[in-house]
Design goal:
Helix content is 38%, strand content 21%. It is built from 16 helices and 23 strands. The strands form 6 sheets. A 7-stranded mixed sheet has the order 15-16-17-14-13-19-20, sandwiched between helices. Strands 10-9-8-11-12-22 form a 6-stranded mixed sheet, with helices on both faces. Helix 2 crosses helix 7, helix 3 packs across helix 4 and helix 10 crosses helix 11. The longest helix is centred in the first third of the chain and has 20 residues. It is globular, with a radius of gyration of 25 Å. It starts with a strand and ends in a 17-residue tail after the last strand.
Amino acid sequence: MARELTHFIDGAHVKGTSGRFADVYNPATGEVQAKVPLASAAEVDAAVRNAAAAQPAWAAQNPQRRARVLLEFVRLLHRDMDKLAEALSREHGKTIPDAKGDVIRGLEVAEYCIGAPQLLKGEYTDGAGPGIDMYSMRQPLGVAAGITPFNFPAMIPMWKFCPAIACGNSFILKPSERDPSVPLMLAELMIEAGLPKGVLNVVNGDKEAVDAILDHEGISGVGFVGSTSIAHYVYSRGTAAGKRVQCFGGAKNHMIVMPDADLDQAVDALIGAGYGAAGERCMAISVAVPVGEETADRLMEKLAPRVEKLKIAPYTDGNDADFGPLVTREAQARVMGLINKGVEEGAKLVVDGRGFKMQGYENGFFVGACLFDHVTPEMDIYKTEIFGPVLSTVRADSYETALKLAMDHEYGNGTAIFTRDGDTARDFVNRVNVGMVGVNVPIPVPLAYHTFGGWKKSVFGDLNQHGPDAFRFYTRTKTVTSRWPSGIKEGAEFSIPTMK
């Protein structure tokens, strides 16, 4: 019988009371392994009231004491790494090494947030006017919330709650209902690390819970990661309710391969960036753009045999699997539909993984690796974020054509260029209208002390995730003008004060 999961409120697991549940699958077998409660608006309200009650005392702790909780949290993440990775793989389908990478990328943000005492320092001006000093303070928003996706169930929750909590906020996390176990485990570890009860709450749910978060007057800031259509919805509804909102949406990341590129290096990059995690990454390279017919022919000659040899298996088969199943049967059907559409539209399916079946796992949500050539910008497989193990090749006749492809696409999350020429790389970095750029680096995800964020329809809001922007997002600036009179002053001023 499938186990029943919980919410995590006031430092404890709490059973759902809405009577509504969603199935949590094992993507490799297609079997239901757990049921997760879907919160009602009343349950969200209870969690917010709990978080609001806990927040003032937590904010009153000095930043160094808050940082010590995160320091211990990092130690506990290392201690439980294997347990977290196994739980993540069981619900998402990632290989164990990939699941550990998911945890580690979140852990690195927690490490950065240990620097909260330095990051939260304000500014001071002595003698701004006669006997006047001015200073600014960074103060927490109050209660913040995060709505996070299925594809990184450890990393993205930590990208949200670690800086928010380091800044003195309390937090409501609404993780994906498809793989909710790891977020619940992270909340347990935060309590073990010394976080006071009520500061971090996990509320599982669907659209009803999301709308309750967006409409709740007690929540001051919301962070979201997911598809562009829902990112736009969350941003519009949240800002209309007067909240500070940052939303990160879809992507279609191009990798330009110049004629002078090291093609062996480029192929290695495309294999990992295109097919890792079964392509279920917002930073996956999904479009290869070789410049020149000769470059394209040589690239395909090297790439196709590598794609054909990729090992697809459940995480239980060991660490040598390249990728596993997709997260749900609906995701599998959607990806298969897009592959079929690409064939119908005239793209050449060089490697066809549609018939992949694994003995003993026939009901799993697997899709074999697919490689398209001669894709054009008018095709759905080019315009749409596929989120599966599918790499499209668009041949460009020149560098300018390749650059224009990346610049004209509606998404602007990440891009990369592979070249040995410094002038070309420098020109590309300066001109391309994409938020994260790699030079001979296929997945240009910034490290924790820089910020992560795309451009165009990949983002809604003006501050990025993690790095310094996270501390700006989760705090408000208060500026104080102070004068202590030295003696009795007579009269009053009725005009606006100015410098004299």
